[in-house]
């Protein structure tokens, strides 16, 4: 599930940057040189900059995909949920609730987000980590989008955040693989969200949203808690928790689908 929808709504950029952004358009390598200077000014090491941006090229397929977007959620709720929450996915979700029951309980105690919500999001975003989480080099994708002048400030910030993920040692550069807007991992975080909400819940010293299920689920819960999730409250439409899910996805039909899926899981699939 592409997280470009969040990019379009201007998610807050956490990577520090200089006062003046690199200019979009024009010569791509000149743009890369300027953004490299910004990365250095924000504290990214020259080694990371050289490894990540040295020789980077534009990806025409990323721009073509971006220009084809016509609104992911233009179906009715009934149409959309029928394509996303079928018997097979509900069965898998129930199995995930059982398999990760102890982990999910610990996360709920710390962040207040119930297991069924986290498993619903996990299932919708990546089929519980088994689905397509993207195959594109994140740095190349974000450099391409940042050079494009339509949302350059947003994607320049995301590019700097991606470099920060590498700088922190959370993911090696070879593992910075994601989707068409630079989304990373099993619940598809943009790099700025990775930096802002990522939690090292398995205690290994790194936030790994590609491979570590504890980190994935705890980080998702942390995002919701930070957005105002109230432990024990309703998550149905009109509730504060439903509103908190706007930080996850602002599309009404998608948040209703999360709530519907969570209800089915809480009811044992019934």
From TrEMBL:
Q: Which residues form the Transglycosylase SLT domain?
A: 28-235
Q: Which InterPro entries match?
A: Lysozyme-like_dom_sf (IPR023346), MltB-like (IPR043426), MltB_2 (IPR011970), SLT_2 (IPR031304)
Q: Which UniProt keywords apply?
A: Signal
Which Gene3D superfamilies does its entry note? 1.10.530.10, Bacterial muramidase
* GO annotation terms (biological process): peptidoglycan catabolic process
One MF annotation (Gene Ontology) recorded for this entry: peptidoglycan lytic transglycosylase activity
Name of the protein this chain belongs to: Lytic murein transglycosylase
């Amino acid at each position: 599930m592409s997280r470009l929808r969040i990019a379009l709504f201007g998610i807050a950029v956490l990577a520090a940057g200089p006062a003046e952004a690199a200019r979009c358009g024009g010569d791509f390598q000149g743009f890369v040189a300027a953004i490299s200077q910004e990365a250095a000014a924000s504290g990214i090491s020259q080694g990371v900059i050289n490894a990540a941006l040295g020789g980077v090229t534009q990806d025409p397929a990323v721009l073509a995909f971006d220009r084809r977007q016509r609104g992911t959620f233009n179906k009715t709720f009934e149409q959309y949920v029928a394509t996303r929450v079928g018997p097979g996915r509900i069965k898998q979700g129930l199995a995930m609730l059982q398999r990760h029951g102890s982990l999910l309980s610990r996360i709920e105690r710390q962040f207040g987000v119930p297991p069924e919500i986290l498993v619903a999001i996990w299932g919708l975003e990546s089929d519980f980590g088994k689905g397509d989480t993207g195959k594109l080099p994140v740095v190349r994708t974000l450099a391409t989008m940042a050079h494009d002048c339509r949302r350059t400030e947003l994607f320049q910030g995301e590019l700097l955040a991606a470099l920060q993920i590498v700088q922190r040692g959370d993911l090696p550069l070879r593992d910075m693989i994601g989707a068409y807007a630079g989304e990373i991992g099993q619940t598809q975080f943009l790099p700025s969200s990775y930096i802002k909400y990522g939690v090292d819940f398995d205690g290994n010293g790194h936030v790994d949203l590609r491979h570590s299920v504890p980190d994935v689920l705890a980080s998702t819960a942390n995002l919701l808690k930070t957005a105002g999730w109230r432990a024990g409250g309703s998550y149905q439409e009109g509730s504060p928790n439903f509103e908190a899910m706007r930080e996850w996805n602002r599309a009404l039909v998608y948040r209703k689908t999360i709530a519907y899926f969570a209800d089915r899981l809480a009811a044992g699939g019934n």
